[in-house]
């Protein structure tokens, strides 16, 4: 049965309460930010809902703190910022979160909708500015849309490769009210992304390549740590196969450095001599020298586990 225990019970609710309650209903615990017009009331409502609000001196540091909390807890924290320069200051953090695969939801106040194009307070094209730094961005157009957009923001920030999401909150919606019965109740999403399993023939091909390897090397990346069972399964795989392995910097800790087959001390030698590299949640980016010679053997084959098919190359 669907759980309706989180439906709103007050007779009327304002936008600040609706959005903070929707965040709490989706499991958000922390809000970082710099409050001011028009989101002062959102900061107050967040605390009234029991969310932990951390006031910062600058939006950039607030966004970095929020994404770090998202990385540490495995679910997004919120960065709450004012319009115009507040949103612009947060963009560095949003870009870092998306590139670094850390979940964060930024909520930026914006001018009242009837003031667009008229030189409203700190008017700026915020959605255009953040779009390149985020996985998903949207303007909240009505009180009724808030629970759906918060759910979408949670899903977008966590599922697939985690990253940054932005919701634009017009100032006129912050204190607008409506009957609580008009606000839809949406279910809390699972924090773990749905599991995707490759076709059996591809798994068979990968196993054949690994079995035929003369000098195989396993590389454990940060993606292994994001998976609920990733660290345990990676450790079990290494224990059963006794293959040499090394972690990427972001993958350190998914499997203990004390593991006897950790060859990180001879990293360059291992990369240069491997004839098959098995990437577990690791990207062939600059950290791994793009998979190219002279760091890698020109004839090296790659078996790859990744959430994003775009990474297979």
TrEMBL record:
Signal peptide: none annotated. One of its GO terms (molecular function) is lyase activity. Keywords: Lyase, Magnesium, Metal-binding, Thiamine pyrophosphate. SUPFAM superfamilies: DHS-like NAD/FAD-binding domain, Thiamin diphosphate-binding fold (THDP-binding). Residues 13-127 form the Thiamine pyrophosphate enzyme N-terminal TPP-binding domain. GO terms for cellular component: peroxisome. Its cofactor is thiamine diphosphate. This is 2-hydroxyacyl-CoA lyase 1. It comes from Pristionchus entomophagus.
